[in-house]
Amino acid sequence: MPEKTPAATSPDPSLSPRHRALAVLCMTDPREKAGAARALYRETLALPDAALRAEEAIEGGPAQVIPGRPARPELVAPQYVGRRRSLQTLAGRANMIHALCHIEFNAINLALDAAWRFAGMPPRYYRDWLRVADEEALHFTLLADHLGTLGADYGDFPAHNSLWEMTGKTAGDVLARMALVPRTLEARGLDASPPVRARLANVGDHAAAAIIDIILRDEVGHVAIGNHWYRWLCAQRGLDPVTTYAQLAQQYGAPKLRGPFNLDARRAAGFEEDELAWLEASAG
Questions:
Q1: Beta bridge partners of 12
Q2: What is the C-alpha to C-alpha distance for residues 225 and 235, in angstroms, rounded to an integer?
Q3: pLDDT tens track for 240-264
Q4: How far apart (Å, rounded) are the C-alpha atoms in residues 201 and 217?
Q5: What pLDDT score was predicted for residue 2?
Q6: What CATH number did the domain enclosing 278 receive?
């Protein structure tokens, strides 16, 4: 499946990469945000590490503008999103693809927020999260385009804001962010993707199934990035990764994870056997 060309829209190139990540985060048009996120990563690849060193904090401005969102979809509590519809119907498939599209739009915001918010990390950290934003933007674009073939647009169905809520809770500590967003919320996608793919393929939506293949492939890498920086931060602070994760999950009210788990994908994403054993033992 060919990649879409990023939109030309981009923040002021005189700004630092972190300031530009914040500017993209504040964009409200989903297509423009996706294009700008992809362009920013490609431009960052040409920069020396010195340009990515970030010791200073950046003020984010009024909380209501972060992240930038379109007027639609309407954001509601998870229980009001609506009942799952049969994928045998066009409306049912559109509803599911819309839900996935919303996850990927949020994922662009999550990655951009990780890039701009936390000062004092190594240059590779910023390049890693801008790469994640680029790939999440591709996922969003592929899903939004496919949604169009089903007669719908992003924004046509209500959605919830649960993914972003943990981002706000962990805004003050990069260790908590790495533990509870990529390693927890995004890692759930590793478990959920295979059954979603199977359901779509079973009703003949092979184009959607192929997009899920791309998403799962890339999400393994995204969770691996979260694992890398979580362990790096634990080593910097002299903390045990397994016990620290359990403490952070309780402190920040992380959702309790439930199986079955995609253990092969989680291993590929860098989870170690003691972590997987703890995960399975603590699962509801």
A1: none
A2: 15
A3: 999 999 999 999 999 888 889 999 9
A4: 17
A5: 35
A6: 1.20.1260.10
